[in-house]
Amino acid sequence: MKTGEEKASVERFGWDVPVILRNSEEEESNAKVSQKQMRQVKNPFSLEIKNLTVASAASGITLSLDCLEDCLLTCYWGCSIQRLHEALQKHAYCFRIKTPQAFEDAVYNDYLYHQQY
């Protein structure tokens, strides 16, 4: 048995009530868990279009990024909605998409442009 593991068994007594039995000779688990201050946010980052009055597809768009945490943000432009939906389904049910390359593979590189911030 590894250090810090607890041996316990679940037994049922009368009226189908579960009772957890634990060996009283075992020490309490002292495993340390790292803690991070949590903040409730709906969206940890934002993109702002600079010079909105002159921004256009023909002349270009300048973005400004703001993020609450250190991160790498990759934006994809002109992504096929069907491929994006398929990629999200893969992420949810098949395998986790953890890198920009994995996302690009999941959408079969079906996008016009991408930029990292």
What does this molecule look like?
The protein is an alpha+beta fold and 117 residues long. It has a domain at 45-116. It is built from 2 helices and 6 strands. The strands form 3 sheets. Strands 1-2 form a two-stranded antiparallel ribbon. A two-stranded antiparallel sheet has the order 3-4. Strands 5-6 form a two-stranded antiparallel sheet. Strand 1 (8-13) and strand 2 form a beta hairpin. The two termini are 46 Å apart. The relative contact order is 0.13. The model is unreliable at 1-14 (pLDDT under 50).
Keywords summarizing the entry:
117 residues; alpha+beta; 2 helices; 6 strands; 17% helix; 27% strand; CGRF1
